[in-house]
Amino acid sequence: MTFETRTLSVRYRAGGPRALDGVSMSVPRGCLYAVLGPNGSGKSTLMKALLGTVKPESGEALVEGRPVEDWPRRELARRVGAVSQSESTAFPLTVRQLVEMGRYPHLGPLRPMKAEDRSAVEGAMERCDVTEFRDRLVETLSGGEFQRVRIARALAQEPSALVLDEPTASLDIRHEMGILQLLRDSARRGVTVLLVTHHLNLAARFADRVLLLNAGEVAAEGGVSQVFQPRILEAVYGWPLSVTPDPVTGAPSVTPLPLE
Amino acid sequence: MRGLVAGITLLLVVILSVLLSARFGAVSLSTGQVVGALLGGGSATERFIVLELRLPRAILGVLVGGGLALAGAVFQALLRNPLAEPYILGISGGAAAGAVLTLALGLTTAASWFLPGAAFGGALLAIALVFGVAMSADRRLDVRVLLLSGVVVGAFFSACIALILALSESDVVRSAVLWMMGSLAGATWKGVGIVAAYTLPACFLLMGLARALNVMSIGEETASYLGTEVEGVKRLAYGVASLVAAAGVAFAGVIGFVGLVVPHGVRLVLGSDHRILLPLSFLCGAAFLTLADLLARVLLAPTEIPIGVITAFVGVPFFLLLLRRSLRA
Amino acid sequence: MGRAHPLAGPSLLLLLISLVFGCGEGAAPGVGDAASANLEEVVVVTDQAGHTLRLLEPPTRIISLVPAATGIILALGEGERLVGRTDYDEQPELESLPSVGGGLHPSLERLISLEPDLVIRFEGDQDRATPETLDRIGIAHLAVRPDRIEDIREMARILAATLDRGGTGEALLRRLERELDEVRDRVRDEPRPQVVFLLGGDPPWLVGPETFLHELLEIAGGENAMADLGAPLYAPVSVEEIAQREVDVILVLEGARVPSALQQLPIVRVPDGVESPGVGLGESAREISRLLHPDRWP
What we know:
B: mainly alpha, 77% helix, globular, C: Rossmann fold, 2 domains, 4-stranded parallel β-sheet, 9 helices, 13 strands
């Protein structure tokens, strides 16, 4: 699956500021693509625009070369697994029931779950380490556990692309690394991964390509080493930074400097 | 599996409720007399009482009770609000206004279908107003706007009713109040047929939306990511559930409580998967209302207690019991 | 025989086969067919809803849902034809009869199980279920309206015709006329106090100009101070409206509450029973007159 935008602009309220302003970017197949930027830079808006939940003021958002609004929702959901920043359940649901919803795009309204569906669900829960919670009510989980359940749901869709908005925000080190490694493995197997995060060093370590947004505009796009330049990052984040190769991973590591 | 067992049990309870409603009433008939009448024998009077008075009432109770409970479950999912019930979008206010206006203008003698027709029309008007306001912004049904406009439209119709009653004669006021309290007393086979024509296809349609409602109850954004055409589902579900509620109110008046509490009760016992919740809410609501009507007819015979009183007095403690058990678990 | 000319009623004509119920046979109830129109119809009356009742047999199992009509039936001497009563019929001779509940919205099951061949019901829209159900099973019904004195007279004539007691009926009505005339004459030259006739409730319900209570009040030598208020029958009125008028006396039913704002005015309590329409109108008129003009009734 490929994602692309062409001079995409999004304005939430007429007369208000643009959340995205003329953003052009492209995510190749099988790439782990990180979208970075400070708060309010438009990262979540970009994700929503690519998934068709927000309508652009001008420009286009394309999925596999097709404008996203031309995609029937169910077909899109069969190919793209999305995890938004947060969600809440209004009524009691078990973990298993929540993850099973990942199969709905394949099942439609009426077809019952078959063995292949069940194994997709089981596999997804295992990979996200939530199998032990399967019969627990979702509202009894911690923030991090709930997040892993939602990622499992996206995996249960057996998608060709994953779009995730801050998926590791509440996770501890073990689970955060687990999820990122899972995402990198998926990318290596051809699943396109679009990752919105504000975790600079993690992005530097795992991403293949990076998009840096600032106040709705593209500040930089390209490979990790291209984008992770002190001048570029400082201009966007408004804080003195040093960028040095990490001694263990070799990836660029960003360190905020103390203000004199 | 639990769902299937519960479903079969509830279906049997519904059938039993209908049979009990045929067996008992303000007049004591023996089981033999009732069975005889059901099979076509017995005296003309016995046959009339069982087949023309009691049975249509029982079936109407099944349809209206089931429809209200199902519509309540659907509204709760769409509005993501456990306090939602079928009248939340002003339906009861509109229906009551239509009925009261018909009574005040003395039009009920013109044709026997005038009163339910006007009530139905009033309900549709309320729905149109509520959706009209909610959709005016950008063709989307925003939940918060829907709730708010439902409250406002309901209040508007209440004011209309108050005005009409203030200007009306005592007999009109009495009839209006009685109508609004809800009753299955006017049930005829023709009326039952009309309600069935609205309710049954609608219920099947809504049950087909079960998976969509599952994801909608998590949130519209997530539902969209899981393949739901959110706006289409909302329009269909709101529209059809409102029709079911409107048909119920038109023929049975405003019977509260069923649409709010029955889905909750079922949810507490069997969970929130709408593929189980919807059909079982229907069956549970059907049995509940039919039995409530039986009690309403029999407890203080020959006086009939308004059915809303029974649904409240019986439903509330039962629900509290369920709630406590679930909180302890 | 009573009123034989059918008015142009709406689409319903009541044809009945009461034989079926009288014999207890299991034949299907329904509307009579054209053939029965050729048989001798012993009862043809038009009720106060404009429907014409045609019976092939005199009614022998009657249930009256209208207490005023029940009283008239008893006064006509035909009480044995009654097979049921309402909760509001308190006459001792009716105590042993089974009750069908209220006069409006009676228990249809009880009503039908008593297998009446004639039901006397209230005219009007308050309770449509009763006439509709009676039509479905094919039981004849008469609609009556005890609103004004003329309505009550008409009701008496209709009932007398239905029960073939025309002579007794006329006698009752003549006696009523005499009683009312007597009351009128007694207070003819007296000054007429402005009266507000309260029926209780908050805001209080009042007697309007098209009711028999209003007419009794006038016969008894009073003026209804609220007659111009627009509602013909009984309606609630705000206390301020009452207080604004020149009121000499407040008549209030026994047991009903007088709003505190009006308690400064002279209040006279009317004994129970006066507010019931029916055969006792003459006595009611006398009662009210005694309360308004005590010196004319030593």
